[in-house]
Amino acid sequence: MIGRLTGKVAAQESDGGVVLDVGGVGYELIVPLGTLGRCRADDAGRVTLWVHTHVREDTLALYGFADDVERAAFRTLLSVSNVGPRIAVAVLSALPAGDLARAIARRDLAALTGVSGVGKKIAERLLLELRDKLPVYASAPGAPVALGQPAAASAGDAEERLRGALTGMGFKPAEAERAVTTLGDRVHSAPVEELLREALALLAK
Known about the structure:
By secondary structure, the protein is of the alpha+beta class. It has three domains: 4-66, CATH 2.40.50.140; 69-139, DNA polymerase, domain 1, CATH 1.10.150; 155-203, Orthogonal Bundle (Helicase, Ruva Protein, domain 3), CATH 1.10.8. Helices cover 42% and strands 19% of the residues. The chain has nine helices and five strands, in the order βββαββαααααααα. The chain has helices spanning 35-38, 68-78, 85-94, 97-106, 109-113, 120-129, 155-168, 173-183, 192-203; strands at 4-12, 17-22, 25-30, 47-56, 59-65. It has a five-stranded antiparallel beta sheet with strand order 3-2-1-4-5, covered by helices on one side. Strand 2 (17-22) and strand 3 form a beta hairpin. The longest helix has 14 residues, at 155-168. The chain is globular and about 45 Å long.
């Protein structure tokens, strides 16, 4: 089992896949959008990803996270019936651990159904099965609102999440800011995955 990897990002795909060069060995990992933007690089440009190793009869996949809190949230999501790695990654792409914990505490069905691939039935199951499992994540880094407070994520949070995803993919801060400005109010309402696709199309012009 691999628990953590430290290396340089050799490649990154728009679908969330990254290749991390660790001592000359390239590890392919799947990460939630914005993960690399939340990682701190050392003086050599290396980042550390906390790893979940997912093994099935015909599959061995590595999932990477900015810290052990997000990895724990991912594993908690996998404990929910009918929630696999693909949905868990989509949820954490749109709602990092702290935001997810507060959405569950508020029973915010709309926040969950706004995630790509999450329908009403799965969202209701998440609210039911995660009710008592996520309170600790509400105080995770980057989650300043205490559990149980009614405030929703601010507009600035949504914009910063998209900026972080783009800069984590190698775009300059000015380019990320241009994409955020061009997308306008959609940044506050559309799923992160959809916004990222649109931002990549804009920056490719």
